């Protein structure tokens, strides 16, 4: 339920830290309340009121106060979301109320049988609640006096594992409820689709095994002994149950409404019905719609709504009799494998991709799927010309499930693994203990291309506008060979590229120049050293402070850092010992690229045409969802709020804009806000085209 707190919304960070402890305590408490408020607006209501920079400034001020006055640190402080020291092992947690698993149903007949059993006990006065079944890991959260004190896994239902430190890092889990209540709630921890795809991309680049689906990824993340790993994975939680809800709550739906009012994240896509026919219609309606959600769902949970009815129905040893999970069948399709294409990544790993006749799966047409490595192909006995069964893992990533040997004609051909790199013809090698074949030629053009794309990417040096098409042309024309060459590019050279105009060239040169000011961790990640991901790069940069110290470090110094294991340490040392790496770093230094850790202050500056402006989004935009549009506005200096007021500077109105647009027009017409600007989507796009053109290429 949306709420607005004007006092908290207007809190802004200060540079000065109070010298008096009592004054510091009051300021720290105000900051905590403001940060919690903005967390709810961002993570639960998808309606941020401040930019990321303003939010980060509040957190930094609070951290500074707590550093000066350690006695002021509280368990529910937002600063305590940061992962602590890795645990040696997880302690066991005994569930006072068992965490039972749900019985499954796979057909309408089974659902009607469930309904018959329920009505046999309760009669015909029955109401059901339908909730999307989130594909994640069941967790329990306990609050005492409104403060989160424990988080646990389901385990065997009777005993779980204490993962409090990891759950505290999940941004939409409140560390303090709105009321000082003592309560246990249960929910599903999950990994959003975009976070799952990104994590697997990072793991594939690092040569690590991929997660099969978002559920496995969420479970694996929450069972990491190091909370920092869990924090970096972008997890979220939906609460689906309140254990022993407060007096006066008679139904499950009321209990979830109470949980939401306390600031707990609940899934808004829940409905109540009295007839099983309506329940089944609702389930079928979501069979396709679920593919458009930003998280994976594999079914619909149906629960008897009244709590006293649930008590009458009771439970078996394993499952409650008042609930059932309808499981959607995994969408699979048969198609014919036509080709296996081998591609070279930036680390030299040569990856096979299946190319097959188009099939429609989970809302999209699919023609390709990764085959991962040679072992995967051999284990499944995949041959060219085979009829194969394809599905989307977690409804996201296409995968080849199996072949259909009964349909073989004898004309099928085993997949041949190339002996030479498909790009540079250098011999491929398979290192001991690895599944991938690799091209070890550092001059391989495919690796150079992928390394340059990675170097310029958003999470690395963030050279806005330097996408694949420009990198490909720059390489083809011999204008660049490695990242250092980017810093010697001239306007005249860029204008030789196809479809490159004066403005684009100027923007690109500006982005390249700004990237010189990045903090060391961005450069370290951008170099593409094997096994060094974005989070590890920041930890290493913090530990060593500058590039020279890092380059001089040995394995022992590196492994002293908690996140750096022997494999990563060896990779870093080997990289910096190479003459090619040393030469690259020297050339980057000469070009003026920063080599020091700046504490996160060195990110690229952006044009700020909306600096100081308060912006309201209303209606539906065709090119961006609400969250992405808000991010772009923040990138241009604007602050997005959820309601139109006398403080609003700009209203961006999409299709079917309603009351907010009308209020903006009234403010203009009555002279209450004569300088308020109303834009349609095209006006917003025109602003982006001028100041943030790469956003339009991404859309």
TrEMBL record:
Its EC number is 6.5.1.2. Its cofactor is Mg(2+); Mn(2+). The active site is at residue 133. Zn(2+) binds at residues 421, 424, 444. Transmembrane segments: none annotated. It is an enzyme of class 6 (ligase). This is DNA ligase. Keywords: DNA damage, DNA repair, DNA replication, Ligase, Magnesium, Manganese, Metal-binding, NAD, Zinc. The gene is ligA. The keyword Nucleotidyltransferase does not apply. It comes from the Bacteria. Pfam families: BRCT, DNA_ligase_aden, DNA_ligase_ZBD, HHH_2, HHH_5, OB_DNA_ligase. It catalyses: NAD(+) + (deoxyribonucleotide)n-3'-hydroxyl + 5'-phospho-(deoxyribonucleotide)m = (deoxyribonucleotide)n+m + AMP + beta-nicotinamide D-nucleotide. NAD(+) binds at residues 52-56, 101-102, 131, 154, 188, 303, 327. One of its GO terms (molecular function) is DNA binding. One of its GO terms (biological process) is DNA repair. GO terms for cellular component: cytosol. The keyword Cell membrane does not apply. Belongs to the NAD-dependent DNA ligase family. LigA subfamily. Residues 605-667 form the BRCT domain. DNA ligase that catalyzes the formation of phosphodiester linkages between 5'-phosphoryl and 3'-hydroxyl groups in double-stranded DNA using NAD as a coenzyme and as the energy source for the reaction. It is essential for DNA replication and repair of damaged DNA.
């Amino acid at each position: 339920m949306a709420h607005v707190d004007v006092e908290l919304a207007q809190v802004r960070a200060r540079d000065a830290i109070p010298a008096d402890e009592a004054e510091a305590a009051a300021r720290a408490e105000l900051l905590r309340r403001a940060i919690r408020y903005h967390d709810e607006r961002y993570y639960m209501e998808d309606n941020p009121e401040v930019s990321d920079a303003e939010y980060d400034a509040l957190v930094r001020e609070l951290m500074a106060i707590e550093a000066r006055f350690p006695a002021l640190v509280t368990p529910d402080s937002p600063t305590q979301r940061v992962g602590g020291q890795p645990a040696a092992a997880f302690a066991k947690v005994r569930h006072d109320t068992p965490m039972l698993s749900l019985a499954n149903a796979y057909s309408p007949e089974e659902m009607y049988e469930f309904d018959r059993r329920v009505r046999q006990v309760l009669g015909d006065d029955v109401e059901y609640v339908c909730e999307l079944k989130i594909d994640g890991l069941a967790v329990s959260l306990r609050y005492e006096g409104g403060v989160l004190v424990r988080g646990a896994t389901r385990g065997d239902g009777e005993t779980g594992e204490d993962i409090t430190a990891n759950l505290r890092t999940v941004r939409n889990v409140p560390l303090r409820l709105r009321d000082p209540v003592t309560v246990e709630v249960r929910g599903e921890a999950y990994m959003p689709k975009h976070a799952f795809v990104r994590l697997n991309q990072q793991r594939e680049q690092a040569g690590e095994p991929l997660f099969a689906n978002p559920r496995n990824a969420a479970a694996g993340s929450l069972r990491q002994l190091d909370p920092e790993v869990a924090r970096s994975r972008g997890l979220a939680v939906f609460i689906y149950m309140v254990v022993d809800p407060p007096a006066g709550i008679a139904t499950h739906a009321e209990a979830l409404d109470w949980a939401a009012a306390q600031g707990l994240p609940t899934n808004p896509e829940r409905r109540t019905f009295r007839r099983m026919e309506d329940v089944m219609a609702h389930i079928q309606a979501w069979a396709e719609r679920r593919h458009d959600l930003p998280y994976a769902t594999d079914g619909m949970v149906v629960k008897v709504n009244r709590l006293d009815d649930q008590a009458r129905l009771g439970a078996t040893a394993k499952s409650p009799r008042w609930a059932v999970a309808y499981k959607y069948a995994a969408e699979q399709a048969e198609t014919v494998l036509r080709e296996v294409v081998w591609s070279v990544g930036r680390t030299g790993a040569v990856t096979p991709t299946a190319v097959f006749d188009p099939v429609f799966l989970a809302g999209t047409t699919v023609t390709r799927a990764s085959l991962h490595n040679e072992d995967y192909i051999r284990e499944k006995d995949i041959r060219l010309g085979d009829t194969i069964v394809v599905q989307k893992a977690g409804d996201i990533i296409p995968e080849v499930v199996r072949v259909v040997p009964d349909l073989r004609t004898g004309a099928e051909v085993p997949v041949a693994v190339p002996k030479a790199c498909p790009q540079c013809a250098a011999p491929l090698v398979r290192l001991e203990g690895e599944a991938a074949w690799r091209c070890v030629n550092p001059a391989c053009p495919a690796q150079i291309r992928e390394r340059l794309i990675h170097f310029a990417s958003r999470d690395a040096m963030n050279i806005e506008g330097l996408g694949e098409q420009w990198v490909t042309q720059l390489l083809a024309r011999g204008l660049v060979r490695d990242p250092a060459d980017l810093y010697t590019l001239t306007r005249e050279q860029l204008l030789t590229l196809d479809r490159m105009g004066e403005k684009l060239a100027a923007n690109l040169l500006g982005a390249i120049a700004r990237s010189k000011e990045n903090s060391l961790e961005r450069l370290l990640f951008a170099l593409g050293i094997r096994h060094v991901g974005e989070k590890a790069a920041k930890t290493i940069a913090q530990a060593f402070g500058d590039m020279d110290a890092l380059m001089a470090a040995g394995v022992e110094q590196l492994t002293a850092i908690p996140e750096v294991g022997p494999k990563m340490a060896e990779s870093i040392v080997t990289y910096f010992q190479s003459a090619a790496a040393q030469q690259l770093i020297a050339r980057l230094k000469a070009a003026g690229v920063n080599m020091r850790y700046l504490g996160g202050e060195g990110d690229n500056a952006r044009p700020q045409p909306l600096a100081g402006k308060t912006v309201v989004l209303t209606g539906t935009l065709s090119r961006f969802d609400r969250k992405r549009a808000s991010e772009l506005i923040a990138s241009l200096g604007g602050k997005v709020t959820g309601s139109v007021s006398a403080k609003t500077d700009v209203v961006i109105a999409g299709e079917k804009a309603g009351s907010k647009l009308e209020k903006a027009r009234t403010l203009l017409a009555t002279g209450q806000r004569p300088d308020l600007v109303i834009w349609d989507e095209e006006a917003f796009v025109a602003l982006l085209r001028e100041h943030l053109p790469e956003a339009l290429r991404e859309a």
